[in-house]
Design a protein that fits this description.
319 residues; globular; 11-stranded mixed beta sheet; 11 strands
């Protein structure tokens, strides 16, 4: 089965890309995709192996649709995920996964989370795309503003046009971990017109401040950092400030990722939470969610364990 979709997200006609017994190709808005059903009760996939918009370099994107997508006129919040290579299947340096489909399946069964569409975006160069400042001599950096516009305009624009989404920023989240968690924070503050919720798991708020990868950085507090200089205007605006989830693990043994990276993420995460409350009017349990994971390491296994709680905080089930 194959074809071309003209669906614009404005009608209640049956979805033109239903799940099938076997994967099949389809074009959506001129982009080639594969519809494939991996048997997860929480949804099925459209995978774009070479998504390209407005001349941008092609990249892989997975769109994970709830089972009910197309069966009614319901529209869904959307969760965009950085480091999409590890969202659903093992990948990355550790060959581990967030197991998003399984986490959502459990949350849906418990009735704690609204059905959502998940868009997992593979990075082309995560050091470039998720960073705002130099962090190690000769390493790519400082491309987050372009990436924010790419995801906010190109990817989100495409998803809103072709799937049954709730388009407003208050119904749209950006999620990431480590450098991708820093990127999530930055996207929500650079483009509050697109993303009004962000989850930053073990985020790299230390970038350019702490000698994690290089001694050639400028130490200092977050309050006077380039990061807060870029974000403060939005954080101080009640009409634009994002709801934030910020977490970290407390396991600082077992190798570099825990002993150095997670330790730095924890220290700067605590500093960020305190700063948001003391200087930017955030209130825990309202627009700020803070979690310390005693068993948390700097890996996808820990982030997968916390993911259902992230979704419950950002998109709780409607009573």
């Amino acid at each position: 089965m194959s074809g071309s979709s003209g669906y614009t997200g404005e009608s209640c006609e049956p979805t033109p890309f239903p799940p099938g017994v076997s994967p099949y190709p389809i074009k959506v808005g001129g982009q080639q995709a594969w519809v494939h059903d991996e048997g997860f009760s929480s949804g099925y996939f459209l995978t774009f192996d070479a998504f390209s918009a407005a001349g941008e370099a092609p990249r892989k994107i997975h769109v994970f649709l709830p089972r009910s997508h197309g069966a009614s006129c319901e529209r869904y919040p959307v969760v965009y995920m950085n480091d999409g290579v590890t969202s659903f299947w093992p990948g990355g340096p550790g060959n581990k996964s967030w197991q998003v489909a399984q986490g959502l399946a459990g949350a849906y069964q418990q009735g704690t989370v609204r059905p959502v569409i998940v868009v997992a975006i593979h990075a082309l160069d995560r050091n470039l795309e998720y960073s705002h400042t130099e962090w190690s001599p000769g390493e790519p950096c400082c491309g987050v503003e372009g990436y924010a516009d790419y995801v906010g305009d190109r990817v989100k624009g495409f998803v809103d046009e072709h799937f049954r989404t709730l388009k407003g920023p208050e119904d749209t989240a950006i999620v990431g971990s480590s450098r991708g968690g820093l990127g999530a924070f930055l996207l929500s503050t650079l483009r509050p017109d697109r993303f009004r919720k962000a989850a930053c798991l073990s985020p790299s708020f230390w970038l350019g401040l702490d000698p994690v990868f290089s001694d050639q950085v400028t130490p200092g507090p977050l309050a006077t950092s380039k990061l807060l200089g870029m974000a403060a205007g939005v954080l101080d605006d009640p009409t634009r400030k994002p709801t934030l989830w910020i977490d970290w693990g407390l396991v600082f043994t077992g190798g570099f990722h825990n002993e150095v990276i997670e330790k730095a993420a924890a220290a700067r995460g605590k500093e960020m939470v305190d700063l948001l409350k003391s200087s930017h009017g955030y209130q825990e349990g309202k627009d700020l969610f803070r979690v310390e994971d005693p068993a948390g390491e700097h890996d996808e296994i820990s982030w997968a364990r916390r993911f259902p709680a992230v979704m419950k905080a950002l998109f709780p089930a409607v009573p």
